[in-house]
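Re: Re: ligand-bound prediction request (bumping)

Still looking for help on this. To restate: I need the protein modeled with zinc ion bound, output as structure tokens. Inputs repeated here so nobody has to scroll up.
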Amino acid sequence: MSESGQEAQPARRGWTWSIRVGSLLGVPIRVHVTFLILLLWFGNVSAQQGGSFLAGVAFLLLLFGCVVLHELGHATVARRYGVKTSEIVLYPIGGIARLDRIPSGKAELLIALAGPAVNLVLAALLWTGLRLANARWPGFDNQLVSAAPIAWQLLAVNLSLLFFNLIPAFPMDGGRVLRASLSIFLGQTRATTIASRIGQGLAVLFAVFALLQRQPFLLLIAFFVFVGAGQEEAFQRGRAAVRGLTAREAMVTRFETLAPQDSLERAAELLLATHQQDFPVVDLWGRVAGTLSRAALLSALSSGGRDRSVLEVMDREVTEVGAETPLDEVLTRLQGNPQRPIVVVGERGLEGMITLDNFGELIEVSKRLGHPPSA
Ligand code: ZN
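Reply:
Sorry for the wait, this slipped through. Here it is.
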């Protein structure tokens, strides 16, 4: 029930409907508010079916504990490949480990396999424990809230997570395994096209099955798989379109910057005076200390912070590239965090800025000219 961070979701700025509940292995864990509704609902169903509210809630927490471990599996292997996981978010339909970028080939393959591998290990441990305790398989009772002992239920949960995620519905784990394997023979672009088509085909089958079986969660998963596969393919096409170009060709060079000590009022003046949506924040030494987005600025202003400094509300995570960085690599970094502008830094400090918007413009202009504007 989980995919490695393919979702094109904004970085955490302002209110995002998810609550941080802690962090594990250095990865912040967040819970979407709709998850809390699921928790209450499940507790209620449990109480109605003769169990207790608390037992229902506890079971769901254990289930999602397995989901978190699955996501940490992705995050741990991603780290070995130098990829940071900005967060793990739990939704009612599963978890997502949001990776800063998704590498290709063998790295993608191993990162994708790591999640299901965790569930395989958990299932094996539970099974061994149950065997040692001579516990007997209670059989399926096909109830939403099962009366079977919790260890058996968790064994079933981990086996379902294992097999469900391995369905080759790109961008789910199994689909990533498929894309990565195909890319060895067919190249990344062709592999992505094939994997996306298969993913969308399977999503349609999921949806039909979900409607027939009245499974609302599966219907939601089908929707996200369908949209996710389309997005991945669009990104891959963009990447192919800019092959051979560098960051220099896509960067904006005329823009305003802020200083960390500037007030938000000053930032608001610049927002009104320019077309800019994002402002690099440059310190006294000419280093980029962060970026301030329109959304973060407006949300801080609406909570009455016009005298606060830019330093307090800016995004301190900076994605820096050099002017000669290949543009397809820049796009990969943007995909990991679409709302965070990329700053182009050279020997003389900040040289330019790239956002998803001006990337789109570059591709549109290139299409009409038949070649990139500056080539
Ligand atoms: Zn996964």
